[in-house]
Fold this sequence. Notes:
The structure holds two protein chains of two kinds.
Chain A: E1 11-21, H1 28-34, E2 38-41, E3 46-51, E4 56-61, E5 65-71, H2 74-90, E6 98-110, H3 117-123, E7 128-129, E8 138-142, E9 147-151, E10 156-161, H4 164-180
Antiparallel strand pairs in A: 1-5, 1-6, 2-3, 3-4, 4-5, 6-10, 7-8, 8-9, 9-10
Chain B: E1 16-18, E2 26-29, E3 35-38, H1 53-57, H2 65-81, H3 85-100, H4 102-105, H5 109-126, H6 133-140, H7 144-158, H8 167-176, H9 193-209, H10 218-233, H11 237-241, H12 244-251, H13 258-274, H14 293-298, H15 300-318, H16 329-332, H17 352-358, H18 374-381, H19 392-395, H20 417-421, H21 427-447
Antiparallel strand pairs in B: 1-2, 2-3
Helix pairs in contact in B: 2-3, 2-5, 3-5, 5-6, 5-7, 8-9, 8-10, 9-10, 10-13
Amino acid sequence: MDSSNDEAVDIIITNVVATFRTRCHLNLRTIALEGINVIYKPEVGKVLMKLRKPRITASIWSSGKIICTGATSEDEAKLGARRLARCLQKLGFKVRFSAFKVVNVLAVCSMPFSIHLVDFTKNNRPIASYEPELHPAATYRIKNIKATVQVFSTGSLTITGPNVQNVATAVEQVYPLLFECRKPLCK
Amino acid sequence: MSRASMRCPGCGSSNIVDDDLYCQAQLVCADCGSVVSEGSLAEESFNGPDISYSRTTAVTRKPCVNLIQGLERVKEISRILRVRREIEELALTYYKQAYEHETFLHVTLQRKEILGGCCVLASCRQQRWPITVGTISCLLNGDPAAVGEVYQEMIKVLNIQAPTFSVTDVMEAHCQEYKVSPGHVPEELAEDSKGLTKRAIALVELAADSWIVTGRQPLPIMMAAVYLAWQSLKPNAQRLKMSLEKFCKLAKVQKSKTAGTRITEMKGMLYKLGKEIPWYKEVLTPDNVVSLVGDVLQHRFSLLRRALKSHELSLLEKCPAGQVNPSSAETSSSSDVSEDAGQTPVKSSVNAEKEKQGRDGDESLKSPSEESNPQTQELTQNWGKRVLFAPPCVVNAKRKRAERPPLHVTGDEEISDSEIESYIRTPQEARDFAMMQEKLFTSNNESS
């Protein structure tokens, strides 16, 4: 069993979620009035601000906590967050960019073979769980790197983890297990 | 202290008498009436450990009422499902264990009821009694997603392993529900339950190879299989004309909407295989394939092989330049016996070389792995087009949105003012915006 890939498997990062704080109170009405690309949601108590480059959506709370979603890499997320902080500075708030942290990374990947999910679950109990009536994919949770891999029988994988490195490690860890349970002569 | 020696502090007299005030002992001077000394009204303070109020007022501890009710419910569910005694007892044990765990101790009663159903499900699975999550959620009148959630938590808490069932395991129990045996319906429409089950299972196994079963809900597949099996066992005009809805009414089961889609998919698959039957001379369409189901099932391995070969040939005709012979290296490995199909490809002696190329237990071909040819590269991305059977998500692959060119940034670059200005309204714009909002607000108020 050759665990180092003959054909490199492409891991495509689809979403990076990051949070940071501005260390000052923010007036949401001012932001809604003076900002472009801004949606005010008074019922929830937050403002959604969308940046164009990098394509990021930020949820801004009046406490100064901000969540950025939509980036496709950690660096993009950081740049977007800094841009957002600058924007808020320009609007007149005493913003200090602090506590930036990437919280979640979502990636997809496609194996060059189909997978027999029942075998995969049997071989990897209890780390893997598969309930075909509830969800068509088998879930494989790797505790030590806190990553979750969802394996579909077509060979597609969805990986979520706290950072990009963990996501890559998760794919490396799970590849040999999937290779064992591949469906013969598919793809 | 002797009363004789005491002297009243007020008048100095030694005429001290016992004059209890109700229950309080008092020594009083008889001459001036002053109280010389008195006993304490109550006992001295208790010097032992503190005893809480609930302990002092506690009665003998009764077992929790909800636990008893929950256990009764578990028994009820087991009896409705008519499971074996061991399963019922195992379920009760699990329920008791899980109930007392902190994850489930303080949850809502509804969740506790769902927990009861999940315990029954887990014990049925461990004892290999086929039952689906759908059945349990029906019995509990709950949402299958909620049942699934509680089930996963319970498995973690109790640290047990419960193997899942495949569709074929549950098939027999499902077929029993259909009231089409000779006693219930007229002779032409009646079908023996055993024969029906057998054919339905064969259909499901065949469907499993064609990506119809993977990832789908079991009930519509089973319903479609039973319907097609029933039609094909005696393919007379009356049966063939009967729609799924009428069949469900006849059999007294509730029709499932997606079963119709599954029927179409199964007919498509049967059509692809039925085309290869050499003795069928008439024009075959997915509609009239039902009459051939018996033959297809009987000769399914060889028909599958023939279908794969002809598919391969048709692909070669379409793009002769790009195709390379599929590597036979993979074919030599014996195919995994899939649980559902349990098939072993029969080695046909005729034309052994060709057999080697097309021989496999399952539905698809290994792709030519040459990346240099752009045509094959395109095909690799959509392998659904290359193989005979593929899941619908691959055959109708969604076109990828135009990918954003990845920004190569470090995260610490300089941010110019002009970029930021583009996100802020000028003061004039802000004033206009505020005015417009006010106008909208007032006009809304007037209109409402």
